[in-house]
C-alpha cells in the first residue's frame, strides 16, 4: 500500500460534508478534519447568522436571526496560524485533514498573504503554501440545493449545525420564510459553481462525493475515500452522526418549490 495522503474536503454548508469528515476522523488515522478556515480574524468566530444576510434589508428576514455577538480579534501571525492548523489537523501517521467552504476562500487568501516565500497569490498557491502540495481534493456536493438551503435556513435560526444523538425538535423555533431560503439558494448554488469552475480551470484531479451517496451508504462512501487516501477501507465506521432533516424540512422544501415557481424565486 502506498503512503497515506493528506486531504482537503471542498464543500458548501449543509452538503453532507460533516458526516464525511466525522467518519474519517473516527478512524483515528485519517487526520482530524476541522473547518479550520471558517474563523474571521476580527472576531475569532465563524460567520454569525446575520453575516450570511449582510446584503438583505428585509426586516421580516433579519428579525428571525440572532443579533451579532462580539468576539476577540485573532492576533496570531500567518505562520503561527499555519503551524497550529497543521498540528491540529494531523493524526500521528502524518495524515492531515481539513474542510474548506468556498465562502472561506477570501480568508485563506488573506492568511496566506502573510506567509514568507509565497509561490503565488491565487487559491491554489495559497493551499500549496499552507498545506501539503500532494493533497487529495474531495468535492462534496448536494444536487438538491433547495433542500440544502432549507436545512441551512433552519440552522441559521436555531444555530444548531449538527446532531450527534437525537433528531431535531418538531418545533425548534425556526420559521419558514421564502425570501430567507431564496437568499441561501443563491449563495449555495454559487459556491458549488465556483468549486466546479476552479477544478476545471486549474485542471485538478478530485474525488466527487454526493450528498445522496453519503446518506444512502455513509460507511461505504467513507471506505471509498479511505482507499483514495491510501488507507484501509475496513476502518470506515458506521455513521457517527444522525440526519437533521425531518418532515418539517420536507414540507418547507415543497412549499418553497411551489412559491418559487409562482414568484420567480431561484431553484
From TrEMBL:
Residues 6-258 form the Sulphotransferase Stf0 domain. It comes from the Bacteria. Pathway: Glycolipid metabolism. It catalyses: alpha,alpha-trehalose + 3'-phosphoadenylyl sulfate = 2-O-sulfo-alpha,alpha-trehalose + adenosine 3',5'-bisphosphate + H(+). Pfam families: Sulphotransf. Keywords: Carbohydrate metabolism, Transferase. Catalyzes the sulfuryl group transfer from 3'-phosphoadenosine-5'-phosphosulfate (PAPS) to trehalose, leading to trehalose-2-sulfate (T2S). Belongs to the Stf0 sulfotransferase family. This is Trehalose 2-sulfotransferase. It comes from Rhodococcus pseudokoreensis.
Amino acid at each position: 500500500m502506498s503512503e497515506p495522503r493528506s486531504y482537503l474536503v471542498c464543500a458548501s454548508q449543509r452538503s453532507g460534508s460533516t458526516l464525511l469528515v466525522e467518519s474519517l476522523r473516527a478512524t483515528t488515522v485519517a487526520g482530524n478534519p476541522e473547518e479550520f478556515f471558517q474563523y474571521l480574524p476580527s472576531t475569532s468566530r465563524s460567520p454569525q447568522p446575520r453575516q450570511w444576510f449582510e446584503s438583505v434589508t428585509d426586516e421580516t428576514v433579519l428579525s428571525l436571526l440572532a443579533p451579532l455577538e462580539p468576539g476577540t480579534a485573532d492576533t496570531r501571525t500567518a505562520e503561527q496560524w499555519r503551524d497550529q492548523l497543521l498540528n491540529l489537523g494531523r493524526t500521528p501517521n502524518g495524515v492531515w485533514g481539513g474542510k474548506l467552504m468556498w465562502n472561506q476562500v477570501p480568508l485563506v487568501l488573506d492568511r496566506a498573504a502573510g506567509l514568507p516565500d509565497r509561490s503565488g497569490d491565487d487559491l491554489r498557491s495559497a493551499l500549496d503554501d499552507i498545506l501539503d502540495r500532494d493533497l487529495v481534493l474531495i468535492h462534496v456536493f448536494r444536487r438538491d440545493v433547495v433542500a440544502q438551503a432549507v436545512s441551512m435556513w433552519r440552522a441559521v435560526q436555531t444555530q444548531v449545525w449538527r446532531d450527534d444523538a437525537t433528531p431535531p425538535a418538531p418545533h425548534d423555533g425556526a420559521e419558514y420564510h421564502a425570501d430567507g431560503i431564496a437568499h441561501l439558494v443563491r449563495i449555495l448554488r454559487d459556491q458549488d459553481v465556483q468549486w466546479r469552475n476552479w477544478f476545471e480551470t486549474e485542471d485538478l484531479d478530485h474525488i466527487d462525493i454526493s450528498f445522496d451517496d453519503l446518506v444512502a451508504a455513509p460507511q461505504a462512501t467513507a471506505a471509498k475515500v479511505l482507499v483514495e487516501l491510501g488507507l484501509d477501507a475496513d476502518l470506515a465506521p458506521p455513521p457517527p452522526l444522525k440526519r437533521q432533516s425531518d418532515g418539517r424540512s420536507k414540507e418547507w422544501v415543497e412549499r418553497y418549490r411551489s412559491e418559487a415557481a409562482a414568484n420567480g424565486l431561484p431553484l
